[in-house]
Amino acid sequence: MRAMILAAGRGKRMQPLTDHTPKPLLCVAGKPLIVYQIERLVAAGFIELVINHAHLGAQIEHALGDGSRFGARIVYSHEGEGTALETGGGILRALPLLGTAPFMVVNSDVWCDIDYAMLTLAKTDLAHLVLVNNPPHHPHGDFILTNGRVNDHRHIQTALTFAGIGVYHPELFAQCQPGVFPLAPLLITAMAQQRVSGYHHRGIWMDIGTPDRLATLERSLTA
């Protein structure tokens, strides 16, 4: 299975840190955020990696190269220096690099101790999502997980937060047209068809989306 790391976001909430450095290259304990993801993916057996980028993307390619020093083979999906394509549009653009089999997608700016090797997609499903307990900055969650199936009932108090980690079948994007669009509507449609499974990860997970969260992770890793 191939894996894609989403690295095209502008990182506006991280400004001014991201004015001259793309968010995936912000360092924690002396190492860029995206490198932690690469290392965890390779440790789980994912060596064919696709990385999309937009804002200051040339820096990402320069820093990571072809991936050989990580034991991986990295190819890049360049979205341009302007507006990124969002998650859905970014994945669709990268599909020719990902192949025809199911593939993993992870956000470059999450910190998680999950074992990626345990995540699989059933033959009839279009997506398998990792969900986590709601963090303070997202108290209402995103989706409901019941008996291993994910549904869009965000008004229910037991909703969980989407971790930015999932396995997808290319068929999920079969009706999409190139351009800017989010992933969530595609997932919600698949949920209505009962074709989305999920896993509740109860370990460590952080969305490193602000300078304060970046500093919190730094303290936890260097204490």
From TrEMBL:
Residues 3-125 form the Nucleotidyl transferase domain. GO terms for molecular function: nucleotidyltransferase activity. Pfam families: NTP_transferase (PF00483). Keywords: Nucleotidyltransferase, Transferase. Signal peptide: none annotated. CDD domains: NTP_transferase_like_1. This is Nucleotidyltransferase family protein. Coiled coil: none annotated. Gene3D superfamilies: Spore Coat Polysaccharide Biosynthesis Protein SpsA, Chain A (3.90.550.10). The lineage of its organism: Bacteria, Pseudomonadati, Pseudomonadota, Gammaproteobacteria, Chromatiales. It comes from Thiospirillum jenense.
